[in-house]
Predict the 3D structure of the following.
Amino acid sequence: MATKTVETTTSLQKVSLLLVVISSFLIPFMGSSLSIALPLIQKDLAINILMLGWIPNAFVLANAALVLPFGRLADIHGRRKVFTCGIIIYTIASLLAGFSNSGMMILLFSFLQGLGSAMIFATAIALLISIYPHKMRGRVLGIYVTAVYLGLVFGPLLGGFLAQNLGWRSIYFANVPLGLFALIIIFTWFKGEWKSSDGEKFDLLGSIIYASSLSLLMYGISTLHGSLGKLMLVMGIIGLVTFYMVEKNVQIQLFHWTYSKTGGPAFQA
């Protein structure tokens, strides 16, 4: 019986590592290969240079603004659940982006890709840490980082090959088979759930302030030459300062609430 448990644990570890490697390759591959395809997208869809620049920016913005809230949601509701939703959203958005016939469509689906990738990045390392024992974490995290850099290295090479021979849409379509393969693995072999803050409250206000402030900051930097860009930049900085003050206040309230309930300090070494 004990041997069966060890085999099951080892199988789960291998499956989780395979899933994280696939997802960690896909996202940087998409980001680095997209730069090769931008001129072809501009020519095919006849979009202006400003909107063209926002195609990769929308992906990065969604990823950066939402990775923190999704990480918290994963701690509360389950890392496997958020990771799976991220793979589903990313795969569907990639498929729809490949069928885009206007700049607004591809911009929207690029944002959705970034949303899905935020859910993946927020949970990938946490899943590995939850599943692998302490003595094995250095090795598996090294494999994770290697997969990320392989995506960055092979993105321009494979992206250029696909764009030249099959068109820019093939770069988006290339994500779909791997995404579907990952989903088959998840629903077939990747069982269980991992949480660290089950039952705790999600900080909706702080998440909204953080996401909107970072969005304003990035938009302000990208349009810094205009007065509106400067205004957005200042508003983004103010928003991030406000986020810090709100979160600091939340931590103080949590400390006092826990102290009153337990008769001891909320945070212990």
